[in-house]
Fold:
Amino acid sequence: MPSGSGGGYEAGPYEAASVKAGSFRPGSFRADWLSQFGGGERGDASPTFTQADHLAPLKIAIVALVAMVLLGPLMTIEDGLAAGEGSVARQIGYLMILALTIYAVRPVARGASWIAFPWPVLVAFAWCWISLSWALDPGVAVRRVFLTTLVGWMAFSLVRHGGYQLSAQILRYALLASVLISYLFVFIDPSVGIHPASEAGNSLTGDMWRGFLGHKNFAGAVAALCVVMFTFDAKQVRRTVRIFAIVASVYFLWRSQSKTSAGMLVLALMGGAVFEFVNRRLRAYLIPLMTIGAALILYLLTAYKDVLQADLTSPKAFTGRGHIWSTLLSYASEHPLGAGFGSFWNIEAGSPVFQYGQGFVTTIFVGHSGYLDQLVTVGLPGVLLMVFAMAVWPLARLLVSEQAPKGQGALISAMLMFCIGHNTTETGMFERDAIVSTIFFFAVAFAHYATLGERRTVKKDAGDAVMRELRQRTRRSARPVVTAGK
Structure:
């Protein structure tokens, strides 16, 4: 991105390949990154390399990672909602993408930039690995935390060293391709492309579109995020393409009947518009209030939906997510450190759900809340670290940023708000290679990149000016008065 369009925004080392000569300062990416850890020197020159030669492997790595994540449900979901994790092709695929990522970023990665994670995310991951020491099923826990770390590191590293523009553009078109391919599955192979209500019991009414994404909730999230990606910071895309992408995605979202994704899409669009059109001081209050308020309302409506819709004397009045969440909260209240990362649902050692849950709760494989699912695995300290790293820290940096362009900030804030709200009633935070979890990583990486190396100046408001003037007057009045002749 040209330097004049970003208010201090600096292109990444690969992103600079498309920037006119003189608009990118070599070496800034390394110095700014190291400054986040308190090290590095300003002005360190970046290594010399032919950027065109390395753009190709970087693009391939981003496309491969997103494609593998999107294909994940098709490769791992077995028998309805049961999650299998024994796909050899999937494991080999991620290792190959890891090797490609290392090769792609090697020319520009130096020192601490290899870490890729910003410090809050690094601390959250560290706690996840520490939790293995008390995991109920260490074997399963190690595989799950390794995969989560792997996917997270690749997302952050590709954005960190490739830049926002390239990563966002590839992600944008990858989501659109997923929606269009899902249409093909709906019409060519309905047995795969349409989600029968019978697979999910009485909670679904009618058949829902899911395409090749395995479940209507995954398909709904992809369609909603596609709308977000083509609504904000997409002026470089032809208007006809943008309109087509938005209309196609909205219709697929409607046919998927994914209520959570639809509700969070409305929130994300409102939040993105606030960032783009409201002044910085006001949006710093509005966006957090909107996010917290929407998440709270969604949580309450979902938890008590069955109570509101059914007769209180009905035996099914207190089933649904409310029943699931009460089970998780009961376990968490007795195990403040949790069962260890990835050691609650679908484990070989026997899930605690069989002890704390009853009825249909013992037949499911997810808690339908990213926050509660992590609460029962990494405990209260772990989930607080995750929320800070994935929600509080990136939003705070973005909202007070003076350098992030409005369009870019609108897209990133909309992505963050969608993922934060979506995790209220669906699981998608630090959740291996789950679609929303991976997009969440990308969104936080975008926020970190957009504010990397920013120097904030402390601005004095009117109150500060008044107090400063009063202190000066006090000092002047305290001086001895010298009169003529004395």
The longest helix spans residues 370-399.
